[in-house]
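Prompt: May I have another protein with tokenized structure?
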Amino acid sequence: MDLAKIETALSRTTLFQGLAQEDLSNLAEICFERVYEKSAVIMSEGQAASGFFIVAEGEVKVYKSNSEGKEKILHLCGPGESFAEVVVFYGKPYPASASAIKRTRLLAIPRDRFVALLEKDTSLSLNMLANLSMKLRRFSSQIEDLALREVPARIASHIVFLSDSQGGKSRVTLRTSKAQLANLLGTTPESLSRTLANMVSRGLIALEGRSVELLDLDGLRDLAS
């Protein structure tokens, strides 16, 4: 990928939206393109952290696993989203693992070179802090959902979140399989399917494959709360 295409990809990310062209050019110069096939491991929990990543194409799951191989998905990241940014400030091994859900192209940003840019550029630092704050807020909501909400409320909350994060769109895409989405939401694929079917019968949503049309946003928000 040439520098112009990297700059374009960077400009479309939540993390770097609004940056001046000069800042994007400086960032593009320190990025490395990496391609991962489906199921390929991108980073492993406990591995020495060299930097963080931006999804240019494809889909990534960030997860924790135990000694028995059981996984708990923490985040699902699609095009324009970043992950593992905490290592920029944390400076320690990766706290979780990540793998490609399908063939994925990433932009890898080395920690040391990115920190050097942060020290020179206030706007870049503010963007980073805003993005991390947004992720912390979403992660806190996810913990609250798992602890306090029933399955229908969790699923409705996730659909509303997808809509809000995509500018209030009335049609969103469930970007991953039902098994992985169920894992993220702390339920089973069967329960997820039943709940979605119930939402359809109530006129809250319409389903077509992984495409979800929000027919009654107020009703979904009520269910989520």
Observations:
- The mean pLDDT is 87.
- The first helix runs from residue 3 to 11.
- The longest strand covers residues 51-57.
- The chain has two domains: 3-142, 150-224.
